[in-house]
């Protein structure tokens, strides 16, 4: 056995040496073969090397194992013979040895066919057969013969142990065959050649797995073959298929691949060919995009760069001329005009030529004001139109552009979409709106600023409220339209708030309802005294309906400036207050500092731990620092603008409506807090009792609703001390039991659902029959989908989307004794999507919520003080129900008592500052 092994090793070394010599000969052919005689000499040398290698190994291999001989000897030698054929053909060495090569290839095919009879050797044998097949056709064999020879090794496919591997090898064969046929078509022009090429490449693509390295090239070659046939035959399906294959090739191609610029160029050319055929300007725009990408990926100094730049320039010229010829009202016109504007804007950014900026502004204006086209495209065009006008210091034009952009916002999130989709559509426009408000204030257009601020906030909540609009007057005037309104609004709300993926027919039905809704509104607005039905309010309407017990302050935070608009009952115009010592970047920094501080102190979820150790002694870089910065930069300048020079004897209300990063900062608690000072510094609560609102319209609607007589108070208490998988919070039992006791003492109806009694179904049902609800539980804010935020009950989470779907006719007030119930999505800060806002949308007049986690140790005390104030107020006024309009004062009183007890330490601030009041 040892002798046999030694002989086998020696034989293998001989064979490897022969292979190395063959590789050397192949190298010589590639580099040095410059004449027919030289090629013949090298071919003879190769054949002699093969013969020598066989003679050196055949005796040992045949003596030891015929199978091993076939597996190693034949396969190894004839693989090189096949490669020789490819090398000589690729170098196009005149008429060199065609007969000899054909003979060698034919012998090679015959040998590998013999090898295929052994299943163990099929894989190697197939690999040998692949390279030479397409070359054999090119030299002297017709297509049918090649197909027959190619199919022979795979005739027993069903018997093979690994079909996937065989298919892969067959696909490679098909790829080479198709590519070669397509190349010959370039010389012969034969439609048979190009059709056979397409057939082979289509088969290769069908067999190759998507992640195979050859797939991008196969798709690209197939796309090219289809494009060539389109040029000859003019069949539109060919060029459309070519585009699809080129797109897939680009999609699957590796970043940085050397062929990527060429593939993008071919894709662009295909769009160009289709544009020339059917005239769709979308195709020329696509062609430009791909030509641009090809240019960007082409290295500087590349030989193809001049031609690609020339192609790109020609594309721009074609689109420019085509847009001029497009008919008015064409659906794609806004997109094409916007693209032209982008070209001029790009050149302006490079050259700073005023004429380019003016041209860009003009084309963007045309694009934005088209009656047809995508609202998203028109909105982006309006945004860029405003940018150009502002850059040209044409502020009147900039205001016009911003007005168009804001009017398009509702169209971008129309009722034909689910709420999740509408929120996704609104992720970008908030920055534009804040910039629009800033420009309006710069130019002194305070009413425009107010209207734009209001129209661009809480669009989804506004749509929900519109679907629930009371229609008593419409019912009296036109019962038929009133019934249509009720039926259609109910259907739209139900389908818009579904959580399931919508089938195509459902989507179409929803879109149809949205169109009917717009038609119905037009019809209702045609009635006398209904011309403004569900229209956004004008500034004059807003100012005439303000509450008389305090100002509303809107804080607009943009990259350009920071400003406040104060709305005061009895004044015909908003008061503009500049916040010159505060910037958008300041707000971002403070927000990040707060988040870091809360995370470091583990104030992210309600629990029963006392985290006071180490907090009180921290240096003044935590919450005290943040509150002082907010006081100096925002709140005190606003109070000065309102004329609050000293603390009043009787404090009024103040409603804050904030934007951007300020939505995550405690404006209501801004002030100077020093635990070591004998006299406390100034703070917001010294001057006013603070509340927050999502937008002005929400507050005005609550004012109207509050005028109606309400039934006696019925309060629902929900306690979840052990909701899994969260940590136990036993303080919720103490909290709700204390409130229950106080309510019974005051003869107010109260129901407590605790622990396993608090299932989602029971809670949902009980909410419908109780005007007040107190929820003491864990809550969470979903990091990416705010509508999936919710409260944890015994058998799962009650999500925000489920809450807002409820019709709660008795809803009056909600106390949310849980963590982070007023923290929304950072990317949707101006949509105010959090649990507390959801309760307002569900119909509650006011809400107590939290900005971060509250302490289980003090939550019962805050709650008992809150309800104690309301019960005393009820007694003092001689009424027999709780007054939700006094809730803001009740919370102010409760938090002041905690502050008086704990002082102004960091520990104290982290305890009471998170509590806030929202709404009326």
Automatic annotation (TrEMBL):
Q: Please indicate which superkingdom the organism of origin belongs to.
A: Eukaryota
Q: What is this protein called?
A: CHAT domain-containing protein
Ranges for the CHAT domain? 626-919
Q: Which InterPro entries match?
A: CHAT_dom, TPR-like_helical_dom_sf
List the SUPFAM superfamilies hit by this protein, alphabetically: TPR-like (SSF48452)
Signal peptide start-end: none
The scientific name of the source species is Crepidotus variabilis
């Amino acid at each position: 056995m040892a002798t046999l092994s030694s002989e086998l090793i020696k034989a293998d070394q001989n064979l490897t040496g022969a292979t190395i010599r063959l590789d050397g000969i192949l190298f010589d052919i590639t580099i040095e073969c410059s004449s027919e005689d030289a090629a013949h000499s090298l071919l003879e040398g190769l054949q002699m090397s093969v013969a020598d290698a066989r003679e050196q190994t055949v005796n040992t291999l045949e003596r030891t194992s015929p199978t091993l001989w076939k597996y190693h000897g034949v396969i190894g030698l004839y693989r090189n013979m096949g490669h020789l054929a490819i090398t000589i053909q690729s170098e196009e060495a005149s008429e060199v040895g065609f007969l000899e090569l054909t003979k060698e290839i034919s012998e090679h095919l015959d040998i590998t066919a013999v090898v295929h009879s052994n299943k163990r050797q099929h894989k190697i044998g197939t690999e040998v057969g692949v390279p030479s097949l397409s070359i054999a056709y090119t030299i002297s064999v017709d297509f049918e013969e090649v197909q027959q020879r190619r199919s022979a090794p795979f005739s027993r496919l069903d018997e093979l142990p690994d079909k996937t591997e065989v298919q892969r090898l067959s696909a490679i064969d098909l790829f080479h065959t198709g590519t070669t046929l397509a190349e010959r078509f370039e010389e012969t022009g034969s439609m048979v050649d190009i059709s056979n090429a397409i057939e082979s490449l289509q088969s290769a693509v069908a067999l190759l797995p998507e992640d195979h390295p050859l797939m991008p090239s196969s798709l690209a070659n197939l796309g090219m073959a289809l494009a060539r046939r389109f040029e000859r035959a003019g069949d539109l399906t060919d060029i459309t298929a070519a585009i699809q294959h080129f797109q897939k090739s680009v999609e699957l191609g590796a970043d940085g691949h050397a062929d990527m610029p060429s593939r993008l160029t071919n894709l662009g050319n295909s769009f160009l060919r289709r544009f020339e055929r059917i005239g769709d300007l979308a195709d020329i725009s696509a062609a430009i995009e791909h030509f641009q990408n090809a240019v960007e990926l082409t290295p500087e100094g590349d030989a193809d760069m001049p031609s690609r730049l020339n192609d790109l320039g020609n594309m721009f010229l074609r689109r420019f001329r085509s847009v001029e010829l497009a008919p008015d009202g064409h659906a794609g016109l806004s997109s094409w005009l916007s693209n032209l504007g982008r070209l001029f804007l790009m050149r302006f950014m490079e050259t700073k030529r005023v004429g380019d900026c003016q041209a860009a502004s003009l084309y963007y204006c045309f694009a934005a004001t088209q009656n047809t086209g995508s609202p998203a495209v028109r909105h982006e065009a309006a945004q860029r139109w405003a940018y150009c006008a502002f850059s040209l210091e044409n502020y009147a034009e900039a205001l016009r552009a911003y007005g168009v952009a804001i009017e398009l916002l509702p169209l971008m999130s129309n009722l034909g979409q689910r709420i999740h989709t509408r929120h996704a559509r609104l992720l970008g426009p908030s920055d534009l709106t804040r910039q629009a408000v800033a420009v309006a204030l710069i130019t002194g257009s305070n009413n425009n600023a107010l209207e734009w601020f209001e129209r661009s906030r809480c669009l989804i909540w506004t749509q929900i409220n519109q679907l629930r609009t009371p229609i008593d007057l419409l019912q009296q005037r036109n019962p038929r339209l009133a019934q249509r309104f009720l039926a259609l609004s109910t259907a739209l709300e139900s389908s818009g708030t579904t959580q399931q993926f919508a089938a195509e027919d459902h989507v179409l039905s929803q879109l149809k309802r949205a169109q009917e809704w717009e038609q119905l509104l037009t019809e209702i607005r045609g009635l006398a005294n209904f011309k403004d039905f569900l229209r956004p309010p004008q500034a004059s309407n807003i100012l005439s309906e303000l509450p008389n017990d305090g100002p509303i302050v809107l804080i607009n935070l943009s990259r350009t400036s920071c400003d406040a608009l104060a709305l005061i009952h009895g004044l015909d115009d908003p008061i503009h207050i500049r916040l010159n010592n505060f910037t958008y970047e300041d707000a971002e920094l403070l927000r990040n500092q707060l988040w870091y501080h809360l995370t470091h102190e583990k104030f992210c979820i309600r629990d029963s731990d006392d985290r006071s150790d180490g907090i009180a002694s921290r240096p003044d870089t935590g919450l005290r620092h943040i509150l002082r910065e907010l006081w100096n930069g925002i709140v005190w300048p606003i109070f000065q603008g309102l004329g609050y020079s000293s603390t009043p004897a009787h404090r009024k209300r103040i409603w804050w409506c904030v934007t951007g990063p300020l939505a995550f900062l405690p404006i209501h608690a801004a002030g100077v807090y020093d635990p070591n000072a004998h006299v406390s510094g100034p703070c917001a609560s010294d001057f006013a009792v603070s509340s927050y609102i999502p937008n002005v319209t929400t507050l005005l609607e609550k004012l109207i609703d509050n005028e109606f007589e309400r039934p006696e108070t019925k309060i629902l208490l929900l306690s979840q001390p052990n909701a899994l998988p969260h940590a136990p919070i036993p303080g919720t039992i103490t909290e709700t039991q204390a409130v229950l006791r106080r309510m019974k003492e005051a003869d107010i109806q109260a129901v407590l659902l605790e622990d396993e009694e608090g299932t989602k179904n029971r809670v949902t049902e009980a909410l419908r029959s109780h005007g007040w609800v107190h929820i003491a539980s864990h809550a969470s804010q979903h990091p990416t989908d705010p509508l999936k935020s919710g409260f944890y009950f015994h058998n799962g989470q009650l999500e925000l989307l489920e809450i807002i779907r409820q019709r709660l006719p008795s809803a009056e007030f909600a106390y949310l004794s849980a963590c982070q119930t007023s923290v929304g999505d950072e990317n949707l800060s101006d949509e105010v999507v959090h649990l507390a806002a959801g309760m307002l949308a569900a119909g509650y007049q006011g809400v107590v919520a939290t900005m971060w986690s509250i302490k289980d140790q003090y939550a019962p005390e805050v709650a008992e003080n809150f309800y104690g104030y309301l019960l005393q107020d009820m007694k003092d006024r001689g009424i027999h129900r709780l007054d939700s309009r006094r809730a803001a004062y009740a919370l102010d009183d409760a938090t002041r008592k905690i502050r008086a007890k704990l002082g102004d330490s960091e520990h104290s601030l982290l305890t009471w500052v998170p509590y806030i009041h929202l709404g009326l």
